[in-house]
Every structure is written in C-alpha cells, then in structure tokens.
Amino acid sequence: MENTVMNTIIYWAKGFFSFNTVVIAAITVGVLFMLAAGTYVVEMNMDKTKTSSTLIEELLWGVGLTIAMVFLQNVFTHLYSTIASSEFGWKYSTAQFVVLFYCLYIVHRKVVLWFNIILPMYVYGLGIVRGQIGFDIAPILAILVIILISYTIYQQNDTLIDENVKYYSTLIMFGLAWWFVLKDIHHLTIVDIMCLTLEFLIAMSIVHFGNKKVRMIMKQYLNLMQEVDTDALTGVYNRNSFNKVVKGVFEFYSNNDAPLTMVMFDIDHFKQFNDQYGHQVGDKVLRLVADRFSYELVDRKAHGQLFRVGGEEFAIIFRGRTADDCEKIVRAIRDDLVKETIRVNNHDRVGIKVSIGISQLRDDDFDFQTFYKRVDDYLYQSKRNKRNSITVEGKVASLN
C-alpha cells in the first residue's frame, strides 16, 4: 500500500515538474488573457456603436468559456496522447478548473455562474449515459459543493478575493469537489485526487499572485489617470478629459445617424456665493450640483457623461439621445436640485438655480467647435433671459 501511494506521488511529481507542465501553464495563461482581452475589445466596440447589451455580453462570455474548455481539452489530450486515459493523463482538467475558478472571481457575469453550475452536472450525466459510471451519492454531493461555492463566490467575490483564508478555502474545496466528480470517470484514487488538488492549488496560487500584482498596477494606473482626468473638487471629469472625449465622439456621431446631444449649464449668481458667504460655501455648492447630476444621470440610465468645463460651468455629453429626450432628463434633475438648500451660516439656508443650453449635433456641424459654440450660445441666451432658464435649439423658456 505504501509503495503504491509513493509511486503515485512520484509519478505525479515527475509529470508536474516536466516540460509539458510549462507548456500547459503558458497555454492556460494565454487562454485567460485571450478571454479577458478579447471580450473587453468586443464590449468596447459594442459600446462605441451603442449596440452593447447585458445579454450580448453574457453570451460572449458563454461562448468564450465553451471555446476555452474545448481548446484546452484538445491541446492537452494531444500533449498526453502517449498516456493511457485511465492513468494520470487528465492534466487539461486542472487547466480548465483554473479558467473556471479565475472567471468566477474576476468576471462578475451570471453566465460564468451558470457555466460552473451546469458543467459538473453535464460531465457527471454524460458519464452515466456513456456507461462509464453508475449513480453514486459522493459525486452528487461534490456537485452540490461546486454549486454552493460558485454561488458564494459570485455573491462575494470582491471581498473573498482579498481574504486569503476564505479565498484558499474556496479554492481547495472547488478543486476537491471537481476531482470527486471525475473520480470514477477517470478511475482516480484518493491519492490521485490529493495530488491533483495540490496541482490545482499551486497553479491557481501562481495565477492569483500574478492577478494581484496586475490589479495593484492597474489600480495605481487608474488612480493616476483619475487625477489627470477628473476634477479634484467635484470628482467629475474635467476640461482635459472633455477635450479628449469630444474628439472621438464627434468623429463617430458625425458619420452615422445616431443622435448626439450636448447640454451646458452653469450655476446662477455663483460669484455671490463666494463673495457673500466665502469660498467654502462656493465649493460646497459646486460639489452638491456635481453630485446631484452625477447620481441622477446614472440612476435614470441617461447615458450622459458629466464634465466640469469651467469655474461654475458644466457640460453633459448624451450619446444616442435627442435634444427633446435630454431636455426632459435635465429638467427633472434640475427640479430635484432646486429642492435642496445649503446652510450658509448657523441660521440661513440658500437654494441653487442653474441656466441651461441644449442642442443636438447637426449635419452642417463641420467640426466640434461649431457644435460647442452653438450650445454655449444657447447657455448664454438662457442667462440673458434673467437666468434660471433653459434654451433648447434656440427656444428659451423660464424655469419655475
């Protein structure tokens, strides 16, 4: 018995510390990269053409995972073609588990969760249909464990990934459960399962370490980009970001039929806030306006991008929306804004009002500056109308 166990461990070690393992690792990392990068590129392109939808993105990940599973199986079956199927030649399963587990933590998609729920049931059911195995309670329990772990990770992946004890607990249980599902199909012993789970633990630990380093670098990069592209006081995009965004937006929407609308607004009598109550109150007013518009643009799913383009002046780029659509949205946000007041001293509170200009991109806008100047003119038209007004395509109306 001891010799059998030792022989199995030695056999596993020889397989693990081999050139094939290096090839497997390289291919697995490549598959992970292609999954993430390929899907990201497609999603970005869909976003630019305004055809992006949750359903399409979910389907993309489902197709990507399916292709990855089949690809890994075929590649590794070829690599281990000289090893009998009943022996230790199921290395591709470890690579597949790495992809599945990685995607559970990194890709917050329902299709990834369902993929991890359905796949073990499919594999076990296929084994029964093919007559490889009979019905047994152990693999059924293992499938339930996989489902439970997958659902737990889906619900709490943001917290579990940074807690090593919980992360590695789910990792080990996930690997053990999967190998128990495959135990009778591949005629694995308990020692085989322990060795293969250790292999999965080592492989996933390397991936996890690399992912943490990449996440740290990306976080630093995003923080740096945020400092460059966002306004320090209000947290919304700044003029620098506005200048970068509008160039690409104009080029895209000037060459297709989808509508593009820009809104510009500024805070009425803002200088009085600073002169009468001090710059701290002025800063508080700016933050309140930015927070109100930022929150409601997201809450209303308005597809609007907010920028602070001047001292008290803001702009919103609405992709795929007409001027009439945007007027309704901006009026609603403005109506909520004027209900709020700011405390300026121990007793007094003051309200905030804004002037607004709105226009939609036209066929005769030969460059962005033409478009921008028209919206800016509409804003000043509202200000000349005793402020607290809105001008939409040249038509001025006072706001209550």
UniProtKB/TrEMBL annotation:
Transmembrane segments: 16-38, 59-76, 88-107, 112-129, 135-153, 165-182, 188-209
Sample GO molecular function, one term: diguanylate cyclase activity
Gene Ontology CC annotations of this record: plasma membrane
Gene3D superfamilies listed in its UniProt record: 3.30.70.270
GGDEF domain sequence ranges: 258-395
Domain of life where this protein originates: Bacteria
Extent of the signal sequence: none
Entry-linked CDD domains: GGDEF
One BP term from GO: cell adhesion involved in single-species biofilm formation
Keywords for this protein: Membrane, Nucleotidyltransferase, Transferase, Transmembrane, Transmembrane helix
Identification of the protein by name: GGDEF domain-containing protein
Organism this protein belongs to: Pediococcus pentosaceus CGMCC 7049
Taxonomy of the source species: Bacteria, Bacillati, Bacillota, Bacilli, Lactobacillales
